[in-house]
């Protein structure tokens, strides 16, 4: 394991840093019984590191959802159950991040709509940035993993340090302008699999949701670059700026440079990784397991409760899902 054991002020957990600026593996947690004191230390570690890795938690679906709910109100998958799509689990708070076809319990056909949609997860992104109320924490837990050597890691990028180290001109520009990012799930699906989703038009698929590009991460007080693959364009005063796409690409390329990233391998079922979408980006790392070995990962997603949770969006808007299982020419269409 890379990184060095650091002296921490923590009393009930031990933190092993995974990268010079963010991410840590945390030991000393008994997930059968996490005290208030220990939970507060986990929250503090999350504020500092943005990504915390916990090995062999021993948690099942129910324990995962119960533990997640301690972080705040949980999102659920109901709005994605459109076009006849059935839930895979009894618990609606669990999002399926794996490669299993729920109907047949076999590995997803790489040619299937869902496999094409999942390709978008291979691009660095912040979960739920396309929602009116964005997400704070994602808690991803392994249920079944490919054999070692076949990939399937999850990669992370430190978007706070990326903000701190923006080239001077870009930093000045972001601080001088009130730039708002318009986010769309259809956009990232299309980026991930352009041919399959050729007919999807992100500008009409569903209303985009808006969050500021540069904003302060409340738990740490540090600035963050809130970008990623769902970011479709950038606006100022309600209008798209003239070099929007160029800026989107420049910011994403800057934030995901190798020096800002770390990769987290999954070792055993019940390993869990928690990340804070308000200060890191993440992606599915891919590998030779694809189409061959089961990789069953399940995620809970916590609604942000910080002052910037709703960004520039109305709290009255109806939340919409993107139905990757619909025929591509209809995918993402409202009400499909
Ligand atoms: C997610 C996600 C990455 C992975 O669950 O939100 O992007 O490695 N997962 O599966
Ligand atoms: Mn994700």
For the record, the count of structural domains works out to 1
What name does CATH use for the topology?
Double-stranded beta-helix
What do the pLDDT scores average to? 92
Approximate shape:
globular
Low-confidence segments, given as residue ranges, are 327-336
Given helix and strand content, the structural type is alpha+beta
Strand content: 15-25%
What is the terminal separation in angstroms? 46 Å
Keywords: Dioxygenase, Oxidoreductase
Protein name: Taurine catabolism dioxygenase
Q: Would you mind describing this structure in some detail?
A:
This protein is α+β, with helices and mostly antiparallel strands and 336 residues long. It has one domain: Double-stranded beta-helix. The chain is 20% helix and 24% strand. The strands form five sheets. The chain has a seven-stranded mixed beta sheet with strand order 1-2-3-16-7-18-4, with helices on one face. Strands 10-9-13-14 form a four-stranded antiparallel beta sheet. A three-stranded antiparallel beta sheet has the order 15-8-17. The relative contact order is 0.23. Manganese (II) ion (MN) binds next to loops. Keywords: Dioxygenase, Oxidoreductase. This is Taurine catabolism dioxygenase.
Topology:
Layout: E1 14-17, E2 24-27, H1 36-49, E3 51-54, H2 61-68, E4 95-96, E5 100-101, E6 106-107, H3 113-118, E7 135-144, E8 154-158, H4 159-164, H5 168-176, E9 180-183, H6 185-192, H7 202-205, E10 209-212, E11 214-217, E12 222-225, E13 231-236, E14 239-240, H8 244-255, E15 261-264, E16 272-276, E17 280-284, E18 296-303
Bound molecules: N-oxalylglycine and manganese (II) ion.
């Amino acid at each position: 394991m890379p990184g060095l054991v650091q002296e921490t002020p923590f009393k009930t957990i031990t933190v092993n840093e995974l990268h010079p600026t963010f991410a840590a593996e945390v030991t000393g947690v008994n997930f059968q019984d996490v005290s208030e004191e220990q939970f507060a230390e986990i929250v503090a570690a999350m504020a500092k590191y943005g990504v915390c890795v916990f090995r062999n938690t021993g948690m099942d679906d129910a324990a995962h959802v119960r533990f997640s709910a301690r972080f705040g109100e949980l999102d659920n998958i109901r709005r994605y159950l459109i076009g006849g799509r059935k839930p895979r689990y009894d618990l609606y708070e669990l999002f399926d991040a794996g490669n299993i076809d729920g109907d047949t319990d076999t590995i997803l056909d790489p040619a299937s709509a869902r496999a094409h949609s999942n390709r978008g997860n291979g691009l660095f992104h912040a979960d739920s940035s396309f929602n009116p109320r964005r997400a704070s924490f994602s808690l991803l837990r392994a249920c079944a993993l490919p054999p070692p050597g076949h990939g399937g890691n999850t990669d992370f990028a430190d978007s706070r340090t990326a903000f701190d180290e923006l080239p001077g001109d870009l930093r000045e520009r972001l601080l001088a302008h009130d730039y708002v990012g318009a986010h769309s799930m259809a956009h990232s699906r299309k980026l991930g699999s352009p041919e399959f989703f050729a007919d999807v038009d992100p500008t009409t698929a569903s209303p985009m949701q808006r969050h500021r590009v540069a904003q302060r991460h409340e738990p740490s007080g540090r600035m963050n670059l809130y970008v990623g693959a769902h970011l479709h364009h950038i606006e100022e005063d309600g209008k798209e700026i003239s070099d929007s796409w160029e800026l989107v690409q420049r910011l994403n390329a800057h934030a995901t440079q190798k020096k800002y990233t770390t990769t987290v391998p999954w070792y055993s079922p019940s390993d869990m990784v928690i990340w804070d979408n308000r200060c890191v980006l993440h992606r599915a790392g891919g590998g030779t397991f694809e189409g061959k070995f089961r990789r069953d990962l399940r995620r809970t997603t916590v609604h942000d409760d910080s002052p910037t949770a709703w960004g520039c969006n109305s709290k009255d808007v109806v939340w919409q899902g993107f139905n990757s299982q619909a025929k591509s020419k209809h995918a993402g269409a409202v009400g499909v």
